[in-house]
Design a protein that fits this description.
about 475 residues; alpha+beta; Phenylalanyl-tRNA Synthetase, Chain B, domain 1; 4 domains; seven-stranded mixed β-sheet; about 30% helix; elongated
Length: about 475
């Protein structure tokens, strides 16, 4: 490290000795910035005793004279100032016993600290002031002295105590319980596997994402904080494919770090491959996983789920995910250039904090229905811009006490002139009516059904098919 030209050889006659005290923070900063680690930097960045500088220099000169026959110079040059001695520390004997957990006699405390090189300068029956030696600059507070007392007294002499007691539930406890019950147990019970990926991403992944870069990265594979879970999930998928997997379905719950926001807790889900390794039970052909499989998984954990069309730079087909009309994430089919996996890769990522509280509502059980239900169908022609969610909202709100469920069972597009009613989307819904305390009459169901039909025509402007 620059000492080759000034090193000691067989022809060396004069040697200059330097004994110095360097600021530990400066040495550590320089060694890190220059990436030059040495035995000297390791020693000095941890601090040395300033009072030993002159004695160490004199001892080195004596050894050179005894071993190599050298003659020490008569003059010693001194530059700079030594750091101030450590400040005195006041120790309370009562606090020492309280922190350790056992009563220790003040005389025992004094004996222990004296053995460690400390000197008592003043004291009473309640407390004492201690002079800290120059080589123990780590002793700066009374708790540091209490730690030395415990080392000398023996931690094995401190009796153990039971810590079993009831602790009030905190916000962190509730958050962890919701995460376990709403997400982990439901997905694991459905056959999903949980994965854990690094919160740091590589430089190549950072190039396609806006990420918070580290000032001092340890390697090129960990240079920035991840802004989302996509890159980590894709890496896990590719490792599974190389291992011979025919289909994967896994999820991850972890922290992400958007550049312009605070860190958030996200849930990431990935699907790829065939629905099973065997033939589909409905037919002899194997079916590939698709976006509807992903949607079905989300419906099991996200309350009042709805999807809307969207655009995303990493997806060939993207949708936005809503819970109670609040946007909580995105999903879709990953672009082919974002993964080397053959076939379609489907990913969803949602902000877990925005739906966990809603998904944790207690389940309510009720007895089996005693009275029969009556079903009626509604078929309608609607404009392309009108969504299924808007239709459901119009049917179910305001609440109809006799309406039990609504199910979409038919959908097709009509062209101009192909249908006498008009062009647009044709949707058909099956409405189920039931009363809890009696058998419904045909007149009651007809009246309730007519109200819904009129509301659809009046509020949404749809054309009903008779």
């Amino acid at each position: 490290m620059g000492g080759e030209e000034t090193g000691v050889t067989d022809s060396t006659k004069n040697i200059l000795l330097e004994a110095a005290y360097f600021l530990p923070a400066s040495i550590r900063r320089a060694a890190r910035d220059l990436n030059l680690q040495s035995d000297a930097s390791y020693r000095f960045e941890r601090g040395v005793d300033p009072d030993m500088i002159l004695r160490a220099s004199q001892r080195a000169a004596e050894l050179m004279g005894d071993i190599a026959g050298g003659t020490p110079a008569k003059e010693i040059h001194v530059a700079g100032e030594l750091p101030a001695d450590p400040a005195d520390v006041l120790l309370s004997y009562e606090k020492c016993s309280r922190v350790i957990g056992v009563a220790i006699d003040p005389k025992t405390v004094d004996e222990i600290l004296t053995r460690f090189g400390l000197r008592k300068t003043a004291g009473t029956k309640q407390s004492a002031t201690w002079k800290i030696p120059s080589y123990r600059r780590d002793l700066q507070r009374d708790v540091d002295l209490i730690e030395e007392v415990l080392r000398g007294y023996g931690i094995d002499k401190v009796p153990g105590r039971t810590r079993g007691r009831f602790m009030a539930t905190s916000a962190a406890d509730r958050s962890h319980d919701l995460e376990t019950i709403v997400v982990r147990q439901r997905l694991a019970g459905s056959g999903w596997s949980e994965v854990r990926t690094s919160k740091l991403i590589s430089r190549s992944a950072m190039a396609s994402n806006k990420a918070v870069e580290l000032r001092n990265p340890l390697s090129e594979d960990h240079v920035a904080l991840r802004p989302n879970l996509i890159s980590g999930l894709v890496d896990v998928l590719e490792r599974n494919i190389r291992a011979g997997a025919e289909s994967v379905s896994f999820f991850e719950i972890g922290r992400v770090f958007p550049p312009s926001k605070d860190e958030e807790r996200h849930l990431g889900i990935l699907l790829w491959g065939n629905i099973t390794s065997a033939s589909n039970w409905r037919s002899q052909t194997r079916r590939n996983l698709d976006l509807f499989d992903l949607k079905g998984t989300l419906e099991g954990i996200v309350p009042n789920l709805s999807l809307g069309a969207a655009k995303h730079p990493d997806f060939a087909l993207a949708v936005e995910i809503f819970s109670d009309d609040e946007r909580i994430g995105f999903a879709g089919q990953l672009s082919a250039d974002k993964s080397s996996a053959p076939g379609s890769v489907f990913i969803a990522e949602v902000n877990a904090d925005r739906f966990l509280d809603r998904g944790a509502s207690a389940k309510k059980f009720r007895e089996l229905d005693r009275y029969p239900s009556i079903t009626r169908d509604i078929a309608m022609i609607m404009p392309e811009k009108l969504t299924h969610a808007e239709i459901l909202r119009a049917i179910q709100e305001p609440s109809e006490p006799l309406l039990e469920s609504v199910e979409l069972f038919d959908l097709f597009n009509t062209k101009e002139g192909a249908d006498p009613i008009g062009s647009g989307k044709s949707l058909a819904y099956r409405l189920t009516y039931r009363a809890k305390n009696r058998t419904l009459t045909n007149e009651e169901v007809t009246a309730a059904h007519a109200k819904i039909r009129e509301r659809l025509k009046r509020e949404l402007g749809v054309t009903l098919r008779e």
